[in-house]
Amino acid sequence: MERESMEFDVVIVGAGPAGLATACRLLQIAKDAETPLSVCVVEKGAEVGAHIMSGAVFEPTVLEELFGDWKSLGAPLDTAVSSDEFLLLQSPTSAREMPHSLIPKTMTNDGNYIISAGNLCRWLAEQAEALGAEIFPGFAASELLFNEDGSIKGIITGDMGVAKDGSPKDSYMPGMELLAKYTVFAEGCRGHLGKQLIQHFHLDNGKSPQHYALGFKEIWQIPAAQHQLGKVLHTAGWPLTEASGGGFLYHIAQNQVAVGLIVDLNYKNPHLSPFEEFQRYKTHPKIAAILQQGQRLSYGARAIAKGGLNSLPKMSFPGGLLIGCDAGTLNFAKIKGVHTAMKSGMLAAETLAEAMFAGVEAGKDLDCFQTRIEQSSLYEELYCARNFGPALHKFGTLLGGAFNFVEQNWFDGRFPLTLRDDKADFACLGKACDYTKISYPAPDNKLTFDRLSSIYLANIAHDEDQPCHLQLGNRSVPLAVNLPLYDEPAQRYCPAGVYEVTEDAGEKRFVINAQNCIHCKTCDIKDPSQNINWVTPEGGSGPNYSGM
Q1: Displacement of CA 270 from its chain's centroid (Å)
Q2: Which of 448, 429, 443, 442 is nearest to 526 (CA)?
Q3: How much is the average pLDDT of 42-64?
């Protein structure tokens, strides 16, 4: 197909913290060098920030590097952390407050801010545009383009106006080729092009498999008497008796709180429902006391890449760079990934500028990026956190937590041993016959809710008459393999009710409600048969998060 094309010096895929930090830093360097560069950022969300969801407690050191005058520029860091509390939830009704002397020091938040990552991205986009970046929201990068020598040439944005059967509708508009000397991939966790690049260029050779968690978040309006502006609460333990992970509750502005649960996706029991575990979490007296008489305003869920340094792939390849959560730069010991994503983007920008200003031929593998990473504060941070996740996976929450306390507080993250977890999350799932079914209570519609009422709050927009973006490698596998062996866990691990097993006239059917998808990527990660491939739907589709 003949497509229109546009050429740039650099194309950046994804207007998240990593991609926007790349654009800002690259254009800052170009301005200082009085050498113009053309930079394009393409974003699949309907607007910048629409698909961004994070806790988030933010460490501002990297923002200070990028914009020393961020306060006068109006960066949306309005709620400073005022206090830290850590609870061990021992049962559905009991809890113990853990003294700070027994908590890994990476979990303390002095000098940090509680933010909306989406609002931060909107602000970063304004700064990038002021510096000269072109930002195209509502356009999904759907395909890779290769040069004849095998290097990356750019990307193709997805066609618009295609019917479910693949035929063009009256509104049909073919995607464009966005060509670049270098393409930076910053799609976030489990980016579908990033996944292809890792496989195509074997970027993960010698690395542990990436590990993931599923993070839930709701924002609640609560009575003023229950609100403590700036307070950060983290929890471990209940309800996650059959999975590892933890909860959080952050007091933000306007008498609101952000409450959430992170469930590691290496759990074994196929009957477990991460969504239902989150609903149970809110019923614990320590959480319910804050939420009671409140109103739920928003809901979202997103996979988190938490493998850290042991799973970090090679981040350069011919014609491009892989950064942020697309590569897996989150520091799980801090449960923070925004500042590390931004740092990886800034390092990418410095690498690109150095190469282009030195006249390096386009399409080369800028493997000097790896050296720049390894000499940076980002690498130091990830190195010191390398054992945090594997310790929890190998030893469990209590013993793993004790190991992490010793390593972080006594050895500053430099324990003379590197733990590894070389079993992929999907491979950890056990057979349904070996585990007891879990009975979850019905929602009370006060603290707990069902999936459909929840995803309504995610403001999902999908044209139902478009090709399904949840592709099955083999359409028979869900009923022929996953149902008898695992009781088809997609019915439970999906936080949006996308997958159902129905029965009509005695015949079972596997139903994909793609219009419900909130783009969390859990199905692509946890399906035990690795039969589901998440690809981008039509640009602008998906959730439209506000303030998440």
Answers
A1: 23
A2: 429
A3: 96
